[in-house]
Specification:
Layout lengths: L5 E6 L4 H13 L4 E4 L4 H11 L6 E5 L5 E5 L3 H8 L4
Length: 87
């Protein structure tokens, strides 16, 4: 597994897919920062500027080579491929 340099998840407390994503990442041993966009509207605007949309979860992954990957929704296959995790 490749630990990302930084992993930010934009989420809300009522989002089921957000919970699934965070639980799965925790099980895989991936550290992440959770940003609750319902409680932090400024960070919510940051998410909208980066993605052009308002849906959650959004993963912003900064890899070791400083490349940023934005993943909309809980795309387990793509996240696993980026981080070298089992699917």
């Amino acid at each position: 597994m490749t630990q990302p340099k930084q992993y930010i998840i934009y989420s809300t407390p009522t989002c089921g897919y957000c919970r699934l994503l965070k639980d799965w990442l925790t099980e895989q041993g991936v550290a992440f920062e959770n940003v609750d966009v319902a409680m932090d509207p400024k960070r919510g605007q940051e998410m909208i500027q980066k993605t052009g949309q308002m849906g959650v979860p959004v993963s912003l992954i900064t890899l070791a080579d400083n490349r940023e990957e934005i993943i909309l929704g809980f795309d387990q296959r793509r996240i696993a491929a980026l981080l070298g995790l089992p699917r």
